[in-house]
Amino acid sequence: MTIAPEASADSWAERPRLGAAMALAIAAIPVLGAILAAFVLHRLVPVPEALVGLVIRIVAIILVAVVVLVVVERFTRRLAPLAALLRMSLLFPDQAPSRFSTALRSGNSKQLAERVEEIKRTGLSLDPNEAAREVLELVSALSTHDPRTRGHSERVRAYAEMLGAELHLNEADRHRLRWASLLHDVGKLTVPHDVLNKPGKPTDEEWRQLQQHPIEGGRLVAPLADWLGDWSKASEQHHERWDGTGYPHKLAGTDISLAARIVSLVDAFEVMTAARSYKKAASPTTARQELLRCAGSHFDPEIVRAFLNISVGRLRWATGPPRSSGPG
Q1: Of 204, 267, 281, 286, which is the most exposed, with the fewest CB atoms less than 10 Å away?
Q2: Contact present, 237 and 249 (Cβ < 8 Å)
Q3: Which residues are known to be catalytic?
Q4: Which ranges in the chain belong to alpha helices (H)?
Q5: What is the C-alpha to C-alpha distance for residues 133 and 308, in angstroms, rounded to an integer?
Q6: DSSP letter string over 187-256?
């Protein structure tokens, strides 16, 4: 198991228990608020004798409880990104931003949508530290833009973390791998929402739009290239294949960055073990067999061997219950 580094001025230390507790609170508080509101009204509002009055009283209590549920849920939902950020261990180019303020910006859907549109037009900030903060906002925005991939990047990051340890990457490279896996799909923000969430097979034109997302991702994360080095190439290269049949550049073998070779594999594993509208989730065992079958064609054989050294038990724990995901 990877031990998270201690927090410092330029990093976030992983706080999984606090993150889990906050996620539980975010889910529970609106329900508890609604129950409390219903209980208070039940005690304060007299029970009428007439049947009509009794029905009106019940309906009124239910309506108030629903309103409280919706209002409180809108407030607590703004803190949902904080629960995810608390589960991350991340190194920043310079001063680490406040997790709380980053989460609040990510949780304000209107401001975030405006910010994303601005970033799509102008790109990330040229300042690496500011660009890193903006990337986290983009990852949060992707969950709204493409609901089927909600949590996808975070699960890819978790699998990449395990694989990085298995490959004996040094601490600096593992820090950068976390970023590479988190931001691998940010280019999807440039793909129309309807195309990403189309339930059926995409048309030729829609497929062309989908295949552009690695190039757009590479453009978006370019300001981080000096800091991340080759690890920044995961965004643009994670759909390349070992045998050269991938896209967008048809790179082959070790011409594909190590970052992309790692992310490509864990991305595929996550998608296979996620339920979609047209398929059931594959078991970790079945997905591992498919990775082995594609070793030497789709994936780097050495990366596959390293991933297969991770026990099925650990993968099952990380996978959790069947979930929904979109294309990787």
Answers
A1: 204
A2: yes
A3: 188
A4: 16-44, 51-77, 80-86, 99-107, 109-122, 128-145, 152-166, 171-182, 193-196, 204-211, 213-220, 225-228, 234-237, 258-272, 284-293, 301-308, 312-319
A5: 33
A6: GGGGS-HHHHT-SSPPPHHHHHHHHTHHHHHHHHTGGGHHHHGGGGGHHHHTT--TTS--SSS---GGGS
CA-based radius of gyration for the chain:
22
Which of 217, 261, 223 is closest to 242 using CA atoms?
Answer: 261
Q: pTM of the prediction?
A: 0.75
Contact partners, residue 143, CB within 8 Å, separation at least 6: 149, 150, 151
Task: Give the tens place of pLDDT for each residue, 166-175.
Answer: 999 998 899 8
Rounded (10°) angle between helices 284-293 and 312-319: 120
Which residue do the tokens 């999807």 mark? 188
In sequence order, the 6+-apart residues with CB closer than 8 A to the CB of 182 are 88, 135, 136, 139, 153, 154, 156, 157
pLDDT at 321 over 80: no
Q: Contact at 8 Å (CB) between 103 and 86?
A: no
The Cα-based distances of 270 to 157, 259, 320 in angstroms read: 10, 16, 11
Q: Which residue has the higher pLDDT, 136 or 236?
A: 236
- Report pLDDT digits (tens) over 251-310: 999 999 999 999 999 999 988 887 665 567 788 889 999 999 999 999 999 999 999 999
Tokens of 321: 């219950």
279 three-state secondary structure:
strand
pLDDT score recorded for residue 5? 42
Tens of pLDDT, residue by residue over 210-226, are 889 999 889 888 888 88
